[in-house]
Design brief:
Elements lengths: L1 H27 L9 E8 L10 E4 L2 E12 L4 E9 L9 E6 L6 E6 L11 E3 L1 E3 L4 H9 L12
Parallel strand pairs: 1-7, 2-6, 5-8
Antiparallel strand pairs: 1-4, 2-3, 3-4, 5-6
């Protein structure tokens, strides 16, 4: 009897451990198994270098969604980014979408600056005003090789 009680306790402990491990895997992996509702909107950027699927979408520093898919629009040569916005968050048609960086060389995310329009984007709406990522490498390269150096002023 004692041996079967110990085996039962070990079995229960193992089941609880597996459930906890599964829960932590989903939470730490930022997966949404039974996630909140969201609706997609899209924005076209000239460059989204370093932006990844699943990155945050923020308004006023508050996460309001995440980046869905990132694809190349063959006709225009721009990056088309699908933004999955949480239900209940309204994005106006004159919103400006910008690719920002956390810190100097941190992760990239999308920052939405809301406008004053009364018109709200619906599902599959398009944000027309975008600001691409600032490419620090090209700026440093221009500075090092002299094309970004200030022009000298002649003395009178």
């Amino acid at each position: 009897m004692k041996k079967s009680n110990i085996e039962l306790m070990v079995g229960i402990f193992m089941v609880i451990g597996i459930i906890c491990l599964g829960y932590l895997t989903i939470k730490l992996g930022k997966m949404e198994f039974f996630g909140r509702g969201h609706y997609p909107i899209v924005a076209d950027f000239q460059s989204v270098a370093g932006l990844k699927t699943g990155a945050n979408v923020e308004i006023a520093g508050v996460p309001v969604g995440r980046v869905g898919t990132i694809t190349l629009d063959q006709k225009t040569g721009t990056a088309r980014v699908e933004l999955l916005i949480n239900e209940g968050v309204e994005v106006t048609e004159d919103t400006i979408a910008s690719v920002k960086t956390t810190g100097l060389i941190g992760d990239r995310y999308i920052y939405l600056s809301l406008g004053n329009s009364q018109e709200v984007l619906s599902a599959n709406g398009v944000i027309t005003e975008t600001e691409s990522v600032v490419d620090i490498e090209s700026l440093v390269g221009k500075y090092v090789f002299g094309s970004a150096a200030p022009t000298p002023v002649a003395d009178p």
